[in-house]
Design brief:
By secondary structure, the chain is α+β, with helices and mostly antiparallel strands. It has 10 helices and 25 strands. A hairpin with an 8-residue loop joins strand 15 and strand 16.
């Protein structure tokens, strides 16, 4: 790969240490991307591009200073290091590493059709058009938007502890939106399968299966009655239902918020923060999953991190700077969108673990409530975990059984409160890809959970 010569990296790190920095690292990145967009059976756009840059970080104690550049010339890079260090120059001097230990992470899963060994545009467009045709078989579908997104990322990480690491990452995703119309009524359904793999992942997805589910959801919502409002028991189904835990709880366990005491959990390590039925994990090692990585963006191997065990808080998500500021051990969670961002503690594949119950057992305990089958988007207050999430597909529960579909439902509450009200956890764990935005940009993550029963939550509705 060799995007930055080791001799230049050593000189840059040596320069930073000579100014008294306690730690210096370099993040070198080259990313190729490809996007195909189709709307209403027409190829609207094909975009390809390559981006290259170098991020330079110097740390003085627990203070971090970061800059990036697209110029890989020695003199320019040394100039940037000098500017960074002049902001917090120290009198102490630290010797640069005599040599780097070059490492390349073990390939955890095979990639046969990444952008480095790509399929043809004709083949990709034909596949996307086959999804479009399958969705449009139903007369009520008025619009279909489909994209394919691919990325091939090559990175190097050098640091003043002697690390020299090289890694390659592949991402592929196909977001599909179907809109159904009946007179003045309209309903939308979305699906976005994706993986840390190449186009071979997409080829494994049958267009008919994907389209049938989209159409079913869109038509169900289209003909549904307005949802009633009020406090009630809610069963949240598996898969993307885990977005609530990710947004309303997961971010509160990142040292990015813990170190500032901006998280309500900052001083709760070892305490019960959830119902004893709840155990939660953040795992970056699951082969091929959308949020998986061999190493994080600081060069540390990723791991399976048990966040909550039996309701008890057992770990935070910790990057290098978070470790310096909080004293907790790093968890391989330092992530960033690109070289334009300093790394921060971020989630990877975050989910509530499977429990002992079936969906039918949970339904049987609810005389009147809501079944949130498919979650949509929402908003969250960063410090408290207050959330408001739309439910894309919902049904009333009546006498322990799923009743008629309803539309316009929202779930309103706080992450810490909902954790304590999850009293039953299903067996049917499922994971779903998404994009997560935070201080270090937008990154691929996976959310997930089995079906959950929440004893009481405020439901917003239009009825």
């Amino acid at each position: 790969m060799g995007m930055l010569e080791e001799s230049i990296a050593r000189e840059l790190i040596g320069a930073g240490l000579s100014f008294g920095a306690s730690f210096v690292d370099l993040y070198v990145e080259k990313t190729a991307s490809s996007v195909i967009s189709i709307r209403d059976r027409v190829v609207k756009d094909i975009k390809t591009g390559t981006d290259f840059g170098i991020g330079i970080r110097v740390i003085f104690g627990d203070k971090s200073i970061y800059a990036y550049t697209n110029i890989a010339e020695r003199e320019e890079l040394l100039r940037i290091v000098g500017i960074l260090c002049s902001l917090d120059k120290q009198s102490q001097r630290v010797n640069a590493p005599l040599s780097f230990m070059a490492q390349k992470p073990k390939e955890l899963w095979p990639v046969s059709k990444g952008l480095d060994r790509d399929s043809t545009y004709e083949a990709k467009i034909a596949y996307l058009m086959s999804i479009d045709a399958a969705v449009r078989k139903h007369a009520s579908i008025s619009q279909v938007d489909i994209s394919s997104l691919q990325k091939w990322q090559s990175i190097q990480v050098f640091d003043s502890e002697g690390l020299h690491l090289q890694d390659e990452r592949h991402y592929t995703r196909v977001p599909v939106t179907a809109i159904a119309t009946d007179g003045s009524k309209q309903a939308r359904a979305f699906s976005g399968p994706g993986a840390a793999r190449g186009w071979e992942y997409i080829e494994s997805i049958a267009p008919e299966q994907l389209s049938e589910e989209l159409v079913r959801r869109a038509l169900t919502v289209l003909h549904a009655d307005p949802c009633p409002a009020g406090k009630m028991p809610v069963i949240i189904d598996n898969g993307f239902g885990g977005v609530i835990f990710h947004e309303a709880c997961g971010h509160l366990l990142e040292t990015t918020s813990v170190e500032k005491k901006a998280s309500v959990f900052h001083d709760k390590m070892g305490e019960m923060i959830a119902h004893e039925a709840v155990s939660a994990v953040d795992d970056g090692t699951i082969p091929g999953l959308w949020g998986s990585l061999g190493v994080d963006d600081e060069g540390m191997p990723t791991q399976k991190t048990q966040l909550i065990q039996g309701g008890r808080l057992t770990s935070f998500l910790v990057d290098r700077l978070g470790s310096l500021k909080t004293g907790y051990a790093r968890t391989g969670s330092g992530r960033r969108q690109s070289y334009k961002f300093a790394p921060a503690s971020r989630m990877r594949n975050t989910y509530i673990e499977a429990g002992p119950h079936t969906l039918e057992e949970m339904l049987a305990t609810v005389p009147k409530g809501l079944y949130a089958k498919v979650m949509g988007g929402g908003s969250v207050s960063p410090g408290t975990g207050d959330f408001n999430f739309a439910v894309e597909e919902a049904y009333l529960i009546k006498d322990g059984r799923i009743d008629k579909p309803v539309r316009g439902a929202t779930l309103i509450g706080t992450g810490p409160d909902i954790l304590r009200k999850i009293s039953m956890v299903g067996k049917n764990l499922e994971l779903a890809p998404g994009m997560c935005g935070s201080v270090s940009g937008s990154i691929p993550v996976t959310v997930g959970q089995p079906s959950l029963k929440v004893d009481e939550i405020l439901v917003g509705g239009e009825a």
